[in-house]
């Protein structure tokens, strides 16, 4: 049984796009064993961390477990979608509901709002569950060709060909995964309709606020709009934190993709890509952030950042349909 594996070696180093699509189709279809929503959550966690891989295309179990926990916390606590498994409750549901009950956490609290120490405890427990039920299962469904993993070393290594494929077709993979995950949740929970669910599944990775990033950036930079350079007075509603590459493509919040913006620029830019002139500006800003070794929080947030990541993100977002270019 593949889900019991503790080590999985990469069986194929090179795959064509056609071969990868064929495997993805099986993973998302009825031909795959779908006893829980776990595999969809792992795919979503991978997408959220696509630009966080190191030079060897590796991610840590902690990175993936954090995203995985956040996905389920927001589904289970915020939206009361308890059934994530056929048969008995999925272990991740039990972990999260027990923590919510023990600490008296209201249902409107998304994962990012709960105490950081509790986040760490939850991620640790979910990571153990992922070792037992998640990594091996998807590894089996993908025939060992998508990734390698090792429970003892707690590392996950994407096949470079699969990483490139996921970048190229990121938006389509996100939409397919969201749809199939919503279909299964609807079936398990007997909710009114798939339309009702899709919005919830699409938004589960979103933060409620980017204020912590605003404070960090204001600690190190003048209060001015990244785009039009207008000064920001600090009045309520005037200073915004904007995703340089739109969140709807990135599906995650990284400080190296976040900038301070005025209300006017943030509103007009919306879900568009800024013109390429600004790419050099954010690269320079990120080089400066990387140099701030005295700030442990920023150093941690800039871990594994390379200039080529934001360049790659910009190029791949255009390939994925974000080709309406904006300027102030």
TrEMBL record:
Family matches, as InterPro entries: HNH_nuc
Any one Pfam family match given in the protein's UniProt record, by short name: HNH_4
Gene Ontology MF terms: endonuclease activity
Protein name (record): HNH endonuclease
Lineage, top ranks: Bacteria, Bacillati, Bacillota, Bacilli, Bacillales
CDD domains named among the record's database cross-references: HNHc
Keywords: Endonuclease, Hydrolase, Nuclease
Residues of the HNH nuclease domain: 213-267
